[in-house]
């Protein structure tokens, strides 16, 4: 990520870095049109506080989020920032806290309601091997039947059961949940999934898609690493998007 401004002394260096990175991600989503009014969530575990993570203030648009306005909550959804006047959306922390608690590698979690991803989540068969980006995910996506708004903790057992060892969960008739070991990794996984869904939506609107065979999908997935830039999954791509955001508005850094 680009050079940071002076750290807010209220927070540790690790927390301020996490806050700036997450605030930047919210601004990227707004810039890309992946926002949904004041809804949806991107959360990140705090590296220096076990059981705490950051979430967006409920009522604030993604394009308004700043590093200091993000809310720190514990694994049970209780606000740690007592002086933060904003609320937390229960539909956000119930689902996100479940995965953060149960999955040590789920450092960052993204849940959205974009038209393309919701459409594919609402399609019989879900994501299909119809394009380059979709091939990234064949055999790597889990599905969970729609049970209504995700505010009931008792649904958690089924969510985890259906997720299994995957780290992308398509909530049928709802939307995707994308997890990553880092926020840039979750971002690039989400970006490619969004593109896969957009292209599938466009292709199916024209007629019967050409499906890619399992043998070619395996070769595609085997060779993906050769197109990756050193520095960690998604880091170069995320940093490039941060630079684009900075050309629009740098207030997310505050």
TrEMBL record:
Q: Where do the Class II aldolase/adducin N-terminal domain residues begin and end?
A: 20-201
Pfam families recorded for this chain? Aldolase_II
GO MF annotations in UniProt:
actin filament binding; methylthioribulose 1-phosphate dehydratase activity
Entries under SMART domains matching the protein: Aldolase_II (SM01007)
- GO cellular component terms, semicolon-separated: cytoskeleton
Q: What class of enzyme is it?
A: lyase
The protein's UniProt keywords, in alphabetical order, are:
Lyase
Which InterPro entries does the annotation name?
A: Aldolase-II_Adducin_sf (IPR051017), Aldolase_II/adducin_N (IPR001303), Aldolase_II/adducin_N_sf (IPR036409)
EC number of the protein = 4.2.1.109
The keyword Lyase appears for this protein:
yes
Which family does this protein fall into?
Belongs to the aldolase class II family.
The name of this protein is: Aldolase class 2 protein
Source species of the chain = Sphingopyxis granuli
